[in-house]
Here is the input.
Amino acid sequence: MGKPTGFMEYERIELAYQPASDRVVHYNEFVKPMTDAEIGIQGARCMDCGIPYCHQGCPVNNIIPDWNDLVYQQDWESAIEVLHSTNNFPEFTGRICPAPCEASCTLNIDDQPVAIKAIERAIADKAWEQGWVKPQVPTHRTGKRIAVVGSGPAGLACAQQLARAGHTVSLYEKEDRIGGLLRYGIPDFKLAKTMIDRRMSQMRAEGVEFHTHCHIGVDLPIATLMEDYDAVVLSGGSEKPRDLDVPGRSFNGIHFAMDFLRANSKRVQGVYVPDEDFISAHDQHVIVIGGGDTGSDCIGTSNRHGAMSVTQIEILDKPPEKEDKGLTWPNWPNKLRTSTSQEEGCERLWNVLTKSFESDADGNVTALNYVLVRWDKDENGRWQMSEVEGSEAQLKADLVLLAMGFVHPVHEGMLEELQEAKGLELDSRGNVKGSTEGAKAYFTNVDGVFAAGDMRRGQSLVVWAIREGRQCARAVDEWLMGRSDLPR
Here is the structure.
């Protein structure tokens, strides 16, 4: 478990970045990697804590102390074997995961957790550099055919695991390239798309067939997949955005965040996007509504466009600068976090409720009208919002990006077809209904149809999608073969 006294001898060191002034002029990753020796020292800080809460903090249950120790010993090849045993794509999570494992680290009690995310990223990058990542081609084929719908992290993980079990797997994606949210939703400066491309090469060698430009339920009926395949996995995203029903919502210049991000990412990756479909923040006063990761990505992209100003507004209270460890550890705490995009330049406002928009004579948005709100608990302990009298104000706006989250998967098309033909059940939030435990884990109520990732659980993290994709693959394998050797 690293060096028993390492946490007392070595300080936590985090990854360094290019200066903001340098990185906002390009869309490349801007992390400055540590040396092997520096990463080894960070691995040495992993203490023999008895109960490694980081296992439970990590959704894929990474065996973190083991690969920390291996990196400390400079046994990198063994480290990637341990890391790959629980995580198909550590180069993804090592870049874009918020690292709940670090919040659960015993050393986080003193705000000095092991630099787990940096170590994971370093292991994955070293493995690719050294050629240790190779296809795991199955020794036999089962003859079973499986269709996986959606090529985001859940679909990719599920497809890879099923192919390694010997099944013939076809992965369907409605966009022109594979990757789902990873491809066009997450900016290139956070995740270089070569990470996806080389995993695709590995998966092709393992037997996965990729089908792009194929929107199931639109271009191809889901009934066709159910006829042609022994099992179907629904692993699409939670893509129905939360809208804002206020006067002026229809003015020009008010867009959903993903429309803004998707068009930009396509251009960055060399995909043709007509000017009428591209949303530019150049010389615009930009307002981002929503304080999460998607909003942060809008800030970073707007700054790279050359926005005149960027303001991010959030309806909730400003989180505390520091959490109360006695109340939160080892769980994920509510605390103020500042992303690299926010560091690049934006004004952040809390307790802001949008009331309406103003426009010019041509219908172009010019301002956002808002009121401040407060949050208080009622007699039942539930938080209630109320407007602060006399706090009405206005923000100048040329471009407004709605980044308020997603309510559920898109129902039109595939899911409606399944509902009408097979009675597919949705949960109370509009997601595909399915449990994660028991004999029917990841089953839907439609025979032979499974669901995993955001389509089943709702909007969540990439690491949760990878977990569900892996676990769903085992459920499918066991259903088809009567048993499974795939890890859960």
Summary: The longest helix spans residues 462-481. The chain has a mean pLDDT of 97. The longest strand covers residues 365-377.
